[in-house]
Write a structure and sequence with these properties.
Blueprint lengths: L2 E7 L1 E7 L4 E8 L3 E2 L1 H6 L6 E4 L4 E6 H10 L7
Antiparallel strand pairs: 1-4, 1-6, 2-3, 2-5
């Protein structure tokens, strides 16, 4: 797990596949982050992501994500 994705426009469906089919966990939209919990936990992605429509995302590298948290710890409270 090396980066977080910030949703600029559109929506992303996050789902898990337990072998019996996919189960929607949530739909993330504009202004939300995807993959942040996995980066914080230091693990591989625990969810699959599929854009529900035309979607723009901003890739935030792990290092940059942690630098932002170091400079503004309140980011974790959002």
């Amino acid at each position: 797990m090396s980066e977080v994705r910030g949703i600029v426009t559109g929506e992303i469906e996050l789902f898990a596949d337990d072998g019996t089919g996919k189960r929607t966990l949530r739909v993330a939209g504009k202004g939300e982050l995807v993959g942040d919990i996995d980066v914080l936990a230091g693990r591989d992605y625990s969810e699959y992501a599929v854009a529900k429509r035309n979607t723009e995302v901003l890739k935030i590298e792990r290092r940059v994500f942690f630098e932002a948290i170091d400079q503004s710890p309140k980011l974790l409270q959002a």
